[in-house]
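Recap from last week: sequence in, structure out.
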Amino acid sequence: MHFLVSSVVCSVLVSVLLKLAPRRGIDIAQAVTWNYLAASVLSLLLLKPSLQSLRGGHAPWPALLGLAVALPGIFLVLARAVREAGIVRSDVAQRLSLLLSLGAAFVLFGEHANGWKLAGLGLGLLAIVGVSARSGEATVAAPGGWRWLLAVWVGFALIDVLLKQVALSGTPATAALLASFAIAFVLMLGWQLQRHFGGRSRLGARNLGFGLLLGALNFGNILFYVRAHQALPHSPATIFAGMNIGVVCLGALVGIFAFGETTSRWNRIGLGLAVIAIALIARGAAG
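Predicted structure tokens:
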């Protein structure tokens, strides 16, 4: 269980760093770039993936390239959502992306839809409405913040669909992650060099250090989540529910008590519905 707790903490700390970045004068695009350098190196050293599967003709390169673009893209979107709408609602939107992932699993991958999953899907849609509602206070969300929450919701679901395509190809997850991280780093580095030499944003050591810390936490979230599944191989639904509910609840506590984010009654109702929806979907996944 300590692996699961560590994964939850790392996930919420990523949101905390994204919240702090503007206050520290961090160029978030540079930080995201160095984040993928850290994630690539840590994946290579700690996961030690076999890259043989990537050399064959069946390697899912379209999906891997899609991930290499979508992963840094969603990081930038999440950073904007945290700044505009706060940690509380951004973390809920991120975790409720599983609703779109579930819908895609029904339509694209032939997954069985049972009553628990459908009930969770229905409650989750209501939760999205509640979480996205504005309270009218500037500390909750800037005007238009709901658009970034929607982008987080759709973006993380897209990543989940791409990961499912990779899994169906038979490519080991560790090799796929390393390839996606490395390509994402190369693409982002090219962009940062263009910005640097174009005089738009000079590369700085401060952004490098912040990005490496961000990458360590991002990788820690993934590593501990994998370790939790390995420690409890017969309880995938428990790990799934614990991870998502844990992030929603801890993110809410940190956002409210550490950053003074305010929530409306509708936001709190949406938060509660989100927890129930995740639990129902996990119950359905358990069969």
